[in-house]
Amino acid sequence: MLQLKNISKSYTTGSFTQTALNDVSLDFRKNEFVAILGPSGSGKTTCLNIIGGLDQYDSGDLVINGASTKAFKDSDWDAYRNNSVGFIFQSYNLISHLSITDNVEMGMTLSGVSADIKHRKAVEALEKVGLKDHIHKKPGQLSGGQMQRVAIARALANDPDIILADEPTGALDTVTSEQIMELIKEIAKDKLVVMVTHNPELAEAYADRIVQFRDGKVISDTNPPADLKTNANYQLKKTAMSYFTALKLSGKNISTKKWRTALTAFASSIGIIGIALILSLSNGFDKQISSYESGALSNFPVTISETAAQIDMSNPPGAQMEEADKKWTEFTDAAEVYPYDPTANTVLHTNELSQEYLDYLDKIDHALLDGVSYSRKVNMNILRSDGETAVPVDTASLNFTTYPDKPAGTEGSYLADYYDLLAGSLPEQPTDLVMVVDEYNRMNQSILEALGFDYNAANVSFDDVVGREFKLIYNDDYYTEADGMFKLNGNAANLSEMYNSANAVTLKISGIIRKQQDSPMSTMSAGIAYSDSLAEQFIKNAQGSAIVQAQEQQDQVNVLTGKVFSQIGGVDMSGMQMGMGMGMGGSSASTDPGNANSQEAALAALGAVATPSSISLYPKDFGAKENLVAYLDKWNDNHSKEEMIVYTDLAAMVTSLSSGIMDGITMVLIAFASISLVVSLIMIGIITYISVLERTKEIGVLRALGARKKDITRVFNAETCIIGSLSGLLGIGIAYLLTIPVNIILKSITDLSNVAQLNPLHAFGLVVLSVGLTMLGGFIPAKFAAKKDPVVALRSE
Questions:
Q1: Mind listing the domains of the chain with CATH numbers?
Q2: Which member of 292, 523, 545, 573 has the greatest number of CB atoms within 10 A?
């Protein structure tokens, strides 16, 4: 049945090599009681471990029923120990936190035997060794002889072919030793029993065969078999420990260390508590902010302008900013203006505010609106001079915009409060202009060109910008009458004369400003900003000019070209509140008097009629805004991309900004709280490693019973899974309780009710996170446990 053929085994420690077995050959019968005797260091225990598959030979072969074990893998040796071998150890090697029934069942558990069958067999085995009345006890409640009987029952329960006993009576008194030997002799009637002992009297009294070892060799054999019959159909049944079994083992082990487990779980839960509270507050504050925004931002307008910026999907914003970061320095100290081409980064969509669209807006449910306001553009006549020649400024390229003024009677300046002055001074007179640059000190090339700067040569110095003068020319000087018609007084000599005329209004760039670094958003884009008083002054003058009065009398003919207009109906938004703002137009078809196709367009181009450049719709509340936006989107659903109207929802922009800030704060706080999770992960690793050291003998026992390396890993992973679950549930429970005092404190400080609210999904996610992190922390110690040598593990105390 069992053969050792020329087995050799040696151990190397540093440069020293010890030969434990030297060319040992032994044959064993299917059922006999063999006692191996010999002095310490003779190799008898090594031989027993090799027979049991706990240790592997260096050379030779171990043959089981005619099957060689040379090609055995780790999993084959595990199955061999589980199927074919039962161990009886001198120190019993019972798992202390399991009942004796669970100890006996363990080998069958690894074999995959059903619960009912393994329990019945375990009870039968315990009855066989005389422990019927003790099946519910734990090992610590038994005497030494009783624990050895449990070890024998465990060895027999899975019905192995071979029983290996290593000094089974070494820790017992004489009477108990004789009882154990009688029991083993009874077992040997139908099994092969191989016993290692130092006691020759016991061997001679009970063994059928005595084999003597000395210096790693067999020196005598009292009853060697003459002819050994073998069964060549030997097959192994693979072992497997279920995760439930691993949880059961770890759970019972943890139950013996309740306080340590509780303190470990609490320490690990601190990070979960912190993150849970942060998420609770973030969730609550998000709701409070949304409620506040619904009230405070409900009347922010939805604005429809003639042009709107859209993202160029072929050049995404991330790539644009990456390029910008390479080329420009944000909030630089350099005293230069940097030209750039914004068309490379954005696509400008032109909104055609046609009569059809204005009629569509007129049909908006007035119950949704608090009012409608229009921004009007003013076409001014502006000249610049190089000292010799005056030329018109292309105002269409200047991005002229009015800068905000604080209401009358209030102190301070909007520009001073929200912008940094880079050079010069802030406007003091209506005729003072200010240049606005972006955070990179950039300015549109077309604006610099319109202002007369040669941006191709070099960057523009602040000193060249501040003090730059322009002249505003009124209509009566800019246009001349001839035979009832008007023309531009625009030859070079006349333009220079107008520039130097006493009637010309001197405009000057008084300073250069940039939004403050900590400002979340800017109300003005890069360009030239002017006082609203300047626009009002020009409109008033234009309305009394000769060309405007002549044009008002001519509703069919353009007084500049003599061409007949194509009539366009007026705009009527009756029932809605109208306001008038100021913006500047340029020399495009819509603002050039010569290209005007209606009397209204001609008057607007002459600065006398404020035509809409943008429309602001003020919703009553957030719900009305959503309906309003849906109504505006409905227009786009029925029109092509070119005919679409792109609007700006300022409330949505602010909401997105505040949401981003809240998310950012939450992420930062979670990052800080996560430090404790990292500490917990390290702590779990240490605790698991300590558990591995404490359970080293248990590891050896499980391996001796046929547990695979992955089963050992699974046992400790199950332990960390239990601790992680307890930690997560404890953390969530404490966090829920802490939201009560937190809400009370916040209520007393801020008058906000029920701020801290933990989302159940967040709670579930944190429990999963806790389990995942603790299992990660225990992963390395679990792998370390699986790699332990079972022979060394069994010798540990």
A1: 2-238 (3.40.50.300), 255-294+658-795 (no CATH), 330-340+376-571+582-609 (no CATH)
A2: 545
